[in-house]
Amino acid sequence: DSIISGGIYRNYRVYVPAAYNGSTAWPLVFDLHGYISSALNEQLYSNFMPIADTAHFLVVYPNGTLMSGQPFWNAGFGATVNDIQFISNLIDSLSAQYNIDANSVYSCGMSNGGFMSHTLACELNDKIAAIASVTGSMSVLQKATCTPNRAVPVMQISGNADATVAYTGSSTSLHIDTLVNYWVNNNNCNATPAFTAVPNTNLTD
Description:
This protein is an alpha/beta fold. Helix content is 29%, strand content 24%. The chain starts with a strand and ends in a 19-residue tail after the last helix.
């Protein structure tokens, strides 16, 4: 489907589990693609559909606009397109079509989609309850202007061998430890981390 936001034609995909009948309000999960990817690629890559079927939530996969001919999200990178407004407009549009639990709207994303999820935690947390970022971070510019005004639950998944979004940060993106510490402080979490070893049970994944 599609909507007009900021004068731009914006399209997206929605996955609606067969069990949804509109009688009760369901959560809504945004799944945002990475740079040079697409809504369809993200839907196939993350494969949320079987989880949505059993956990009972709707999933929306929006498409970003183009930068240098490639799909992207303007996650505090100084571009002119207003993706915060787009996501806000899309929440309103979907809420008019489906019975959405307004207190259970979430965003997750891969890489640039992870950056955008952090942007939504900063700028749209009146509509986004919590976020998860996979291989994303936050731009240096975003951190300077991020004022959530509330605790925002955040999950950050990063690898220290990531060659695309470096764990140690760059001139434009935060060190992952700095990012996590930002949310620890904003959310008034216990500053002492808990470490849990997770065995590598699948050596072929």
